[in-house]
Amino acid sequence: MEITVKVKRCNPQGNADCKPSWQSYDIKAEVGMSVLEVLLDVIAGVDPSLVCRRSCRSAICGSCAMKINGRPLLACDTQIIEEYEKAGRIELEPLDNHRVIKDLAVFQEPPWDEFDKIIPYLNEKDKDVAMTAEDEHAIDASQKCIMCGSCNSVCNALEMEKNYLGPAALAKAWRFVGDVREGKKEKRLDRLSQEHGIWDCVRCVHCTEYCPKDVAPLSAIERLRDKAMAYGIDDNHGAKHSTAMVDSIRRVGRLDEAAMTFKTLGLLRSIGMIPFGMKMEMHGKMPHPVVLPAIDGIDEVRKIMDKREEEKKKEELD
Ligand code: SF4
Ligand code: SF4
Ligand code: FES
Predict the structure, then answer these.
(1) pTM attached to this predicted model
(2) 194-212 pLDDT, tens per residue?
(3) What is the spatial distance between Cα 31 and Cα 80, in angstroms, rounded to a whole number?
(4) In angstroms, what is the span from residue 162 Cα to ligand 3's centroid?
(5) Of the residues 148, 164, 175, 218, which should be mutated to test ligand 2's pocket, given the most ligand atoms within 8 Å of the CB?
(6) Is 244 close to ligand 1, i.e. is its CB under 6 Å away?
């Protein structure tokens, strides 16, 4: 099958401001060929100046992650004909939120540098702890990460704040915090709760949606948040906001934005938010804090919340 493969090319080496441009290659694809195989054929036979990264060719090293038709995918695990028939085109770009080395190859500082920051090894407990199958299951998904960086490339929080640890490193952090053999959970959670840690996530779910290995980084982040709060590590905006949200639902069955802002930011910083709050109210985006009645059925909402709180109390700190 004849296919035109378009590649977004750029060589920032020696020219940091270079503008990317599209280059087309007409190739002959056979059933069973991956995008990576096609790229390697182009490099070997047509254009040796084209650059991509790869190692295992078996979807286990994470090197070949790139944007294929706008989505982060592993090039070695994407059938080119299937993808072409689905999208009607093949357009290849480097991962977003990563610095380009050349063409489709990107520097892999995120997530590698962030992995260092989360201290990627176990701190032993004083005594040996045997793992059960259930214990292993709790961290199973996070152990499947192949460090491809796809989740970081689609992370809205990382796009806004380059210092955010990012979903890949936080999924890895859960691998250690969630491990019954880890001896310094509280210390880890304390560090992860600081600026640019677990509370920077805006829950867009992209990381979970695009991870090729079903690591579900957002679930790991939610577990880290729960665990941090269970340890009483709650003197930060994220934890305060979360508590304020629960209080609001219990009180009126919906979000009382004004009260939540006050509880999250404190008096002084909330005063600075008044013009913004007024604007929101004028556009019908925020109910007036003084006239915010409880919803019908609030008693049912409270019963559900009581039940959940009972369950949470039973969850022990290990
Ligand atoms: S859910 Fe959070 S960590 Fe995942 S991509 Fe969105 S902002 Fe990033
Ligand atoms: S969590 Fe998934 S998407 Fe993110 S680096 Fe690991 S394998 Fe890749
Ligand atoms: S080359 Fe290793 S994951 Fe694709």
Answers:
(1) 0.90
(2) 999 999 999 999 999 999 9
(3) 8
(4) 26
(5) 148
(6) no
3-state secondary structure of 133: helix
- Asked which of 63, 88, 106 is the last residue of a domain, the reply is 106
Q: Is 211 touching ligand 1 by the criterion CB < 6 Å?
A: no
CATH number of residue 89's parent domain: 3.10.20.30
Please give the residue range of the domain that contains residue 6. 2-106
Burial class for 290, CB neighbours closer than 10 Å (0-12, 13-18, 19+) = exposed
Cα torsion angle, 42, 2, 210, 196, sign? positive
Ligand 1 binding pocket mutation candidate from 118, 152, 218, 219 (most atoms within 8 A of CB): 218
**Tokens of residue 30, six digits:** 């056979």
User: Which ligand ends up closest to the CA of 76?
Assistant: 3
Residues 132 and 93 in one domain: no
Closest ligand to 212 CA?
2
Here the CATH number for the domain that contains residue 113 is 1.10.1060.10
Residues 6+ positions from 49 with CB-CB distance below 8 Å: none
Based on the fold, state whether residues 266 and 251 are members of the same structural domain: yes
Is the peptide bond preceding residue 167 cis, with omega within 30 degrees of 0?
no
Query: What pLDDT, in 10s, does the model give residues 99-146?
Result: 999 999 999 887 788 999 999 999 988 888 889 999 999 999 999 999
* Domain total in the chain: 3
52 CA distance to ligand 2 middle (Å) = 19
